[in-house]
Amino acid sequence: MTTYKEIKGTQIEAVATDPSNPVEGQVWYNTTSNVLKGRATLTSGAWATANSMNTARSALGGAGSQTAAIAFGGYDGSSGVTLTELYNGTNWTEVNNMNNSNISGPLGAVNTSALVFGGYGSDFLAKAESWNGTNWTEINDINSARYNIEGAGTNTAGLIFGGSEPPGFSNRSDKTERWNGTNWTEVNDLNTGREDGAASGTSTAALYFTGDATPRTAVTEQWNGTNWTEVNDVNVARTGLGGSLAGTYTSALASGGNSAPDTTAAVTEQWNGTVWATDANLNTGRRGLAGGGTATANVVFGGESSPPGQTAVTEEFTGGPTGVTRTFTDS
Asked: Which of 163, 258, 259, 292 has the fewest CB atoms found within 10 Å of its own CB?
């Protein structure tokens, strides 16, 4: 028989006082009042459609905030592009291009400093470029050439992980590398090698969730600066999410993606540091999108919708679940 812990990842505890910061789904027994209590979600956030990018594309990189974001690279339906656009909370403006197309990994906390790495052209790429707010500059290559890598941190203190690596696209990577602003250093591996997931956080406190481990996976892992630890799974296994840099180690947003072959998803989930909870759906379901911001003030853009086709749609997320404590009764 399935237990409560297997469903929610937590046990029912007996405590003298209510927890100060309970998470959704947590249940406890208060021995002072002799009642069973639980944490429920009262309200959720909402997505609103904003002005579109200038160029529709999928598999692009993104970083920044809801009012100051950057979109770079991607696939326009026929080839890889080097285009870069900046978002000011209202409009998108084209700025200087990247040096290389087909680079796939996004990383960057703000729109004035970003990093892109790895990818696939005629072969797997190890190239990396750094954005200084005006131009892209080629920097030292990553150690392991890979495609569909994810990352967390900034362009001077970053962490990259996962992807596909030679000899073929089905070879899922568990490799992790740290960037110190000058060089890349291999550090401890992921527990589950996978590509095309989503990430948030910093180089010392990162979150990596979902991805293609053949098949799609709902796995979530946390990085503490030294090791990766598996924590509670997302509710819907997906690839190609727009969760990159959408939050922190303890508060993140997982939006969109590909939940089944050739099926795009609009589902959004919130991470509170312990469990994932379903939130408001995107207005346009898509995969291969990018994003930036926080778990309560987020922006996503681009991607590929169903039926297949690149999109320039931008959406902004505001709010998030508000928790309320409920008392269980026998009536």
From this structure: 259
Give the pairing of strands 176-179 and 184-187.
Answer: antiparallel
Tens of pLDDT along 229-273?
A: 999 999 999 999 876 566 788 999 999 999 887 788 999 999 989
The C-alpha atoms of residue 317 and residue 331 are separated, in whole angstroms, by: 38
CA distances from 52 to 111, 143, 211, 292 (A): 17, 36, 26, 15
Q: How far is CA 7 from CA 2, 192, 277, in A?
A: 7, 21, 13
Which two tokens mark 259? 């939940």
pLDDT digits (tens, 9 = 90+) for 51-74: 999 999 999 999 999 999 999 999
Both tokens of 201, joined, read 């956080």
* In the chain, where the domains are located: 4-43, 46-318
Beta-bridge mates of residue 172: 164
CATH class of 46-318: mainly beta
Return the SS3 of 201. strand
Q: What angle do CA 54, 57, 59 make, to 5 degrees?
A: 140
Residues 6+ apart with CB under 8 A from 280: 44, 45, 46, 47, 268, 317
**Burial of residue 281 (number of CB atoms within 10 Å: 0-12, 13-18, 19+):** middle
Based on the number of CB atoms within 10 Å of its own CB, is 215 exposed (0-12), middle (13-18) or buried (19 or more)? exposed
Q: How far apart are CA 71 and CA 68, in angstroms?
A: 10
Top pLDDT among 325 and 198 is at 198
Question: In degrees rounded to 5, what are phi and psi of residue 7?
Answer: -80, -45
Number of C-beta neighbours around residue 309 at 10 A: 12
Reference 198, options 265, 247, 232, 231; nearest CA is: 247
Closest CA to 119 of 66, 84, 74, 153: 74
Asked if residue 20 lies in contact with residue 299, where contact means CB atoms within 8 angstroms, the answer is no
The contacts of residue 320 (CB under 8 Å, 6+ apart) are 44, 45, 270, 279, 295, 296
CA–CA separation, 26 and 151 (whole Å): 30
Which among 91, 108, 102 has a CA at the least distance from the CA of 60?
A: 102
